[in-house]
Write a structure and sequence with these properties.
The complex is a heterodimer of chains A (414) and B (305). Chain A is of the alpha/beta class. Chain A has helices at 2-21, 53-72, 96-107, 121-134, 151-157, 174-188, 202-217, 236-243, 260-267, 286-292, 315-325, 333-353, 361-368; strands spanning 39-46, 80-87, 89-90, 93-94, 112-116, 137-140, 167-169, 193-198, 221-227, 249-253, 276-279, 299-303, 393-400, 403-411. The relative contact order of chain A is 0.14. Chain B has a single domain (2-291), classed as ABC transporter involved in vitamin B12 uptake, BtuC (Orthogonal Bundle). In chain B, 73% of the residues lie in helices and 4% in strands. The chains are: A alpha/beta (414), B mainly alpha (305).
Chain lengths: 414, 305
């Protein structure tokens, strides 16, 4: 009998562990209960825990601020807006399968009319087919992989309704971001010998290829290109091999949560500490500074969005953000704000045209597909036929004295 | 140039292998004595890093600057982390495995996986699901021998590992407790008839195995400067491979296996490709299980009849 009880205790412990292992479905505000009258919800699917949280939380804050502002301005007369923010990180890293579960959860709540997110391109790759078949608008503040919207690979993600775009983004793509970073390395800093690493994910591998191709066009040499593995902790052997080729720059395609900070830290152990380190928006976060520690200096990163500090229209936003959350904005806080505002705008316009009734999800989508010009705190933009933004600004940052410092930004719109 | 590269990677491999070897000892000792593959052991190793950095946080580091003071602190932290891990190991044995000692083999194995999940989640709640930085307070001078660079932190990993192994060998082969452990491993009932307290002997085995993982937790924290609550999963699998490679149940084999696996990883990264390291390591596991299940050195215990 005693043994029996112990087994049950042990089993329930395992179950408990398994439960807490499952994502911590963090909700920003809201509860399912009041989803009845006069509430319209904006979903947000972002990584809020682990290595991605230092990107995901500031972006989620942008969404929250948009909801606060919209409610203040009564943008949807007679209705209160609520944010329903879910975490797509599992065990500290963004998870495509968790992202899919979150979209399903949004879809099952009729009050959710559109979703901001996701943050990571591999999560988007899993979510786009679902949003396409369910007909729910998805506006990403931060996905940069070009294959999510353009070309035959993007077509494969939209097989249910091939002609219906349900996925949009307010940041530009890696076919612009990668080359912009490479040009900075080759033309501004005059680097010539690059060793390229990536985390083998949709985003990381894509941006690394784009960066490498442009770096070669600029007259640089790619000494080698390696992929790191999920959960890898030791990069000494890999970096020793890279060091033997005498690179003057190491490029890392990927996020901090997949190893971006650890690689930089271990470069110091393998004779590469004085070598410049380039990455893209996946490492432009505070977690990178924590993980890389003293080795973080001389790192550079691009972000596929404007620096809100440089835009007069964003001043009120920046002030309000600081007052509300007591910290500076993240790379994609303004983009999160704009993504949410774009959905709210679409809801408001659709509502006006059908006489004050709450629009359906497809009404909202129809509104977004019209290609109207949106005035926003990150500049005016519209969505093209693929759902991409016409606002193609890349900003570049560098680490100085252990802090990310803005260097320059450039508009690549033709 | 090519040789220089080879030796540099050899250093990387030996440092990595030093960590694997210490963790592998825990697998092999526990298997040797109760034939259980303790899958929670990798997480005890991560727990060692977490204990170490929590202990370090309690020490007012800025007051100590002299080299010998820092090394003394390191020694104290290692001992405390080992002690705490050892206690956790004993608790795991007492609460989870002891009752299942005579149960079918699958029951303790599944329990081990359950314990592993519990430890991982406790660590996630404790330090969060992000990388945690580990204060590298020891000096990290670089020694150059013919163009090959060796860092103090790498030397620390290797020397501490070797020292632990020597101590363990003395313990197992020269002391009363060691004799009791070997006797229990050979035949539990007969050992009991000879007056050996089986329960306390097995508890000591868990204590020592977990304490060694705690030591590895400190040295690897110092070597990498960061830790993550799930690190023990991969490291545990590789250390387990090391134990099997050396001959599970065999203490010397586990050390040899640990260093070999570390070197194989570094060489794979140098001469094949970094993303193939896990493939190569786990292929070795499969090949060993198929062609030489008793490992390189074989089980050191006499055949059971």
């Amino acid at each position: 009998m005693k043994n029996h009880r112990a087994a049950i205790v042990a089993l329930s412990f395992c179950l408990l562990a398994a439960c807490s292992n499952a994502p911590n479905g963090q909700t920003g505000s809201s509860g399912g209960a009041q989803s009845g009258n006069n509430v319209i919800k904006i979903g947000a699917d972002l990584p809020l825990s682990g290595g991605d949280a230092s990107d995901g939380i500031p972006t989620a804050n942008g969404v929250k601020l948009a909801i606060i502002d919209a409610n203040k301005q009564h943008m949807i007369p007679g209705y209160t807006l609520q944010a329903n923010i879910l975490d797509d990180a599992v065990n500290g890293v963004h998870s495509p399968s968790q992202g899919v579960k979150n979209i399903q959860s949004f879809a099952s709540d009729n009050a959710v009319l559109g979703v901001v997110g996701p943050f990571n391109s591999n999560v988007a790759k899993a979510e786009i087919p679902l949003s396409n078949s369910l007909g729910i608008a998805l506006i990403s503040p931060a996905n940069t992989n070009p294959d999510l919207t353009k070309g035959s690979l993007a077509q494969e993600l939209r097989t249910t309704n091939p002609n219906a775009i349900t996925y949009f983004r307010v940041c530009t793509t890696d076919d612009i971001q990668g080359p912009a970073g490479a040009d900075y390395a080759a033309q501004v800093i005059n680097l010539r010998r690059a060793y390229v690493l990536d985390d083998n994910e949709t985003y990381g591998r894509g941006v690394a290829d784009q960066w490498a191709a442009e770096f070669q066009k600029d007259g640089g040499t790619i000494l080698g290109h390696d992929h790191i593995t999920k959960g890898q902790q030791d990069f000494h052997a890999l970096l020793t091999r890279a060091a033997s080729q005498n690179p003057d720059v190491v490029f890392y395609g990927g996020t901090t949560s997949t190893g971006g900070g650890l690689v930089r830290k271990q470069m110091a152990d393998t004779g590469l500490g004085a070598i410049r380190y380039f990455g893209a928006d996946g490492i432009r976060n505070d977690q990178f500074l924590t993980d890389a520690g003293a080795a973080a200096n001389n790192s550079y990163a691009t972000v596929a969005s404007v620096n809100a500090d440089k835009i007069p229209a964003a001043r009120a936003f920046l002030k309000e953000y600081q007052a509300q959350f007591g910290q500076a904005v993240g790379s994609y806080s303004a983009a999160g704000y704009v993504a949410a505002m774009t959905i709210i705008d679409a809801i408001a316009t659709a509502m006006k045209s059908n006489g004050g009734k709450v629009p359906s999800r497809s009404d909202v989508l129809a509104q977004l597909r019209q290609g109207l010009v949106h005035k926003s705190i990150i500049g005016d933009f519209s969505f093209d036929a693929n759902g991409d933004t016409t606002n193609k600004v890349i900003s570049t940052y560098g680490v100085q004295n252990g802090q990310w410092v803005f260097l320059l930004q450039k508009n690549y719109a033709k | 140039m090519a040789e220089h590269q080879f030796f540099q990677q050899l250093i990387n491999g030996i440092a990595l292998g030093g960590v694997y070897a210490l963790v592998a000892l825990g697998y092999t000792m526990v298997y040797g004595i109760i034939e259980l593959i303790n899958f929670a052991h990798g997480d005890v190793y991560t727990l060692g890093t977490f204990f170490s950095l929590s202990i370090i946080a309690l020490i007012p580091m800025s007051k100590f600057t002299a080299g010998y003071e820092l090394w003394l602190i390191a020694f104290i932290v290692i001992v405390l982390a080992a002690l705490l891990c050892g206690i956790v190991g004993v608790l795991i044995e007492r609460l989870a495995y002891r009752r299942l000692r005579n149960a079918p083999r699958l029951a303790p194995l599944i329990t081990a996986i359950g314990v592993s999940l519990i430890l991982e989640n406790v660590m996630q709640l404790w330090k969060g699901p992000s990388e945690v930085s580990f204060p590298q307070f020891l000096p990290d001078r670089i020694h150059t021998f013919g163009g090959i660079e060796i860092h103090d932190h790498a030397l620390l990993v290797v020397f501490v590992s070797i020292a632990c192994m020597v101590a363990l060998n003395i313990l197992v082969f020269r002391t009363k407790l060691g004799t009791a452990m070997r006797a229990t491993a050979q035949d539990r009932d007969a050992a009991q008839l000879m007056g050996i307290n089986i329960n306390s002997t097995i508890a000591w085995t868990f204590f020592i195995g977990a304490a060694l993982a705690g030591v590895a937790g400190f040295t690897s924290g110092m070597y990498y400067g960061t830790t993550f609550f799930l690190n023990g999963y991969q490291a545990g699998l590789k250390a387990f491979t090391a134990a099997v490679l050396g001959g599970i149940g065999n203490v010397t084999g586990a050390m040899l296996g640990g260093f070999l696996i570390g070197i194989v990883e570094a060489m794979t990264s140098q001469y094949i490709s970094d993303q193939w390291t896990s493939v190569v390591v786990f292929s070795i596991l499969i090949l060993i299980l198929v062609f030489r299940p008793s490992g390189l050195l074989g089980e050191q215990l006499p055949e059971k009849v």
